[in-house]
């Protein structure tokens, strides 16, 4: 934490006891707290939020709501802004991201939500610790979100913002002392994926950024992805349903 943040800590902490502005987020739709409760008593509570474009809201939001977001404790679809702190972890995704919530929850069991940390697919430029891909989805601890809101946004220690969501959030989190943690598994395989699964198992040309941005060398084939993979990006609505079937319904 910087000296500037430390000096202003008392002022910022005082604001924690104030009511959060009701218009801090532009919320389009929120599911009720009827989502599947995890079986274990100590299972991490996860709030999921998805950035949704208004012109594709009904098709994409419905696909998300019908598939993997059912395993969140609560899901919110919105354009941009912030929410409360009654959960342990806060997952951000795009409207074309598929997330295997069981694998995310299993990974998070080993971490303290009151530590300033976030996870995702790690890019290496722009900050000393890099930042997480917005498309692959990233998950912030309760303390990371508190610092982002109270110090970074309301405390105005971050900015000016560029409009590139994942980069802006990554820079701000670095500024307020949140660690960009490594999300690879014990074998060094990625859990979060910024591309469609075809990019990893097909012969399509990879985007140019994969050589310069990937924190770990980009791999394809079976060495690309953890058996406990958490996310894929650029998933179209019908692929959401396909993944849902393959992961949760098909049996050998």
Characterize the biggest β-sheet. 7 strands, mixed
Roughly how many Å is the radius of gyration?
Answer: 18 Å
Question: What is the mean pLDDT?
Answer: 82
Question: Into which percent range does the helicity of residues fall?
Answer: 25-40%
Based on secondary structure, the structural category is alpha/beta
Enzyme class: transferase
Family: Belongs to the glycosyltransferase 31 family. Beta3-Gal-T subfamily.
Keywords: Glycosyltransferase, Membrane, Nucleotide-binding, Signal-anchor, Transferase, Transmembrane, Transmembrane helix
EC number: 2.4.1.122
Defining key terms:
252 residues; alpha/beta; 2 domains; seven-stranded mixed beta sheet; two-stranded antiparallel ribbon; signal-anchor; Fringe-like_glycosylTrfase; C1GALT1/C1GALT1_chp1; nucleotide binding
């Amino acid at each position: 934490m910087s000296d500037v943040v430390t000096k202003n800590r008392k002022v910022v902490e005082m604001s924690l006891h104030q009511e959060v502005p009701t218009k801090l987020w532009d919320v389009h739709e929120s599911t009720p707290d009827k989502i599947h409760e995890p079986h274990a008593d100590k299972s991490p509570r996860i709030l999921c939020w998805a950035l949704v474009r208004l012109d594709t809201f009904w098709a994409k939001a419905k696909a998300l709501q019908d598939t993997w977001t059912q395993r969140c404790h609560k899901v919110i679809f919105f354009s941009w802004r912030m929410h409360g702190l009654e959960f342990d972890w806060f997952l951000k995704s795009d409207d074309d991201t598929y997330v295997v919530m069981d694998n995310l929850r299993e990974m998070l069991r080993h971490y303290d939500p009151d530590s300033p940390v976030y996870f995702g697919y790690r890019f290496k430029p722009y900050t000393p610790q890099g930042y997480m891909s917005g498309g692959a989805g990233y998950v912030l601890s309760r303390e990371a979100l508190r610092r982002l809101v109270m110090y970074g946004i309301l405390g105005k220690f971050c900015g000016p913002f560029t409009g590139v969501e994942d980069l802006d959030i990554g820079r701000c989190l670095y500024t307020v002392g949140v660690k960009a943690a490594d999300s690879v598994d014990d074998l060094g395989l990625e859990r979060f994926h910024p591309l469609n699964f075809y990019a990893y198992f097909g012969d399509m040309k990879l985007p140019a950024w994969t050589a310069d941005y990937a924190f770990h060398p980009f791999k394809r084939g079976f060495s690309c992805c953890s058996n406990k993979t958490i996310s894929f990006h650029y998933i179209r609505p019908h692929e959401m349903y396909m993944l849902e079937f393959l992961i949760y319904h098909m049996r050998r």
